Amino acid sequence: MLPGPVDVPxxxxxxxxxxxxxxxxxxxxxxxKSIEDSxxxxxxxxxxxxxxxxxxxxxxxxxxxNLLKPGDKAIVPVFGEFSGRLASQIETAxxxxxxxxxPFGTAxxxxxxxxxxxxxxxxxxxxxxxxxxxxxxxxxxAKELGEVAEKYGMFxxxxxxxxxxxDELPMDEWKADVVIAGSQKCLFTPxxxxxxxxSDRVVDFVRKNPPxxxxxxxxxxxxxxxxxxxxxxxxxxxxYALETALSRISKEGIDKRVSKHRIxxxxxxxxxxxxxxxxxxxxxxxxxxxxxxxxPSGVDDLKFRSAMEKSYNTIxxxxxGELKGKIFRIGNMxxxxxxxxxxxxxxxxxxxxxxxxxxxxxxxxxIALDKLKGLE
Length: 376
Known about the structure:
Number of helices: 13
CATH architecture of the largest domain: 3-Layer(aba) Sandwich
Largest sheet: 7 strands, mixed
Distance between the termini: 19 Å
């Protein structure tokens, strides 16, 4: 139950055993067309969706390389380790990150970010980590932030690596120019590819301002996508897996997938509060895909997670950075079923009891079951 990589359905895993084919041939063209058609439905975009053979971090770097040159400014809301990492990536590329900070567990207001845009009208874009997994925080004003970016003529980049497919993100409606998704999170695909939705505005910009990167050049990917190919050798087995996963999501419907994540998240939060535990993040910013909870006084992080794994065969993760030892986090991603939620709730309660913390596990289970009534 990690916040990625997640468990992968058997049919998605088995699809990786298909033969290695010519990535310039008709079989690959059909594969790529299927991925493209499903992706555009899920991204809710009329633009392009390219697939990079890289981790999600590579996808984030691709946005930086295509939109920024050395010395260019970008506004970055920072409210967790990964939003901080995005700002650092911009600085590593010799850009200037204008950080708009907020304490972990909260997020900067739209007004604070717009104020930074007013003060830095020469900034090329707003780069938002939509869901920062380190505190378990989702930026719930992402749509409004797109309007701010449009108002000031800036590009709008959404790092949605950990949340894409698990929460709403209509790319075109939210006026996003770049949306980055990771295969190994809510898309329940093995790690190794990043999907990137790219607006026509970005492609036009890149054609006129070629990036300092050969591998991540968006215009090149769009040109090859026109013939259902990739500019460079793709991670073919993972493309097979991705096609299977996207097809499943597309048939089910992305809105239904998002609803499942919300229902399961509500069950987790309600159950843990019934145990006397406190979610780490302010309610309005709580993630539906990463459930973060404060440890009660006296509960040791390593002992607790060890008890969950050894006694109940359930693997979760703790906090890191400034949150190490203070919270535990559960991935609510990809495969969303009662058969996963309920054992995890029980394992948390029983493991706490082993460590001497009095948790009303029976009440928590009853509440979780009630919340999960809408989950098939």
